[in-house]
Amino acid sequence: MAAVTQIRVTLEMIKWEHSIFALPFALTGAMLAARGIPPVHVLFWIVVAMVTARSAAMAFNRWADASLDATNPRTRMRAIPAGLLTPGFVLGFTVLMTAGFELACWRLNRLALLLSPIVIAVLFGYSYMKRWSRFSHLVLGLSLGIAPSAAWIAVRGSLDLRIVLLTGIVLLWTAGFDILYACQDLEHDRQEGLYSIPQSLGMDAAFRIARLFHLAVVVLLVVFASLFHFRLAGDMGVILVAALLLYEHRLVSPHDLTRLNAAFFTMNGIIASVFFLSVAADLLLKTPR
Which residues form the domain of 123? Predict the structure, then answer.
């Protein structure tokens, strides 16, 4: 039973269910690179790389932030501060997941393996950015934004600048909702000397910046759709993403964060899934305009 409990706590620590944020964008990049469904073995190793990289990043973040989590009422019940997992176990899990990610990159192609240390540096570096810069949200955005470009490299063994635009889109999308999420830790960040846009500029400015980022996402999605010659299904996906982002911003305000979890977790999972499914349908069904 102890082993089962440890597995359950570990899965809770890495929030494995939130893989839905980044995985759809990786699958989008893979399908665009393959102009359809990639070979099964490539798809398998892409999923392994995504799951292990995200698990390593989450575990490392919990290890690096353990002392800060212990002082924050919102996070003090996380696994390490609550004594459910030891720092040594979490660090060992991080190493194991990193090894799994490197194995997946090796099985994909040479370029994926060569670039893998850069990916790890970005994923782990995010955990320390809030100690140095208010723009840590952009580094988190890059951590997720790497996914579609990395998946393209996994399929083709090279990089196309068009898919880099999707990396920028995911970066701004993630940074925007992370700014909103950081609003609930504003007072704690000020007390601990941590940096964020809400802590530095205040709640009202943070919401304006998040809205600006998400407006840029919609504009860039239109450009992206044009570059890849989206048909009806893809265009409808862009419209739906824009509508969902608008709805997300209607759920919260600088004076009401009570529905923040719905905006952050539920809506963002839906947005990522809707975009992937629309691109997949566009590629597979070839629906006419």
Answer: 2-285
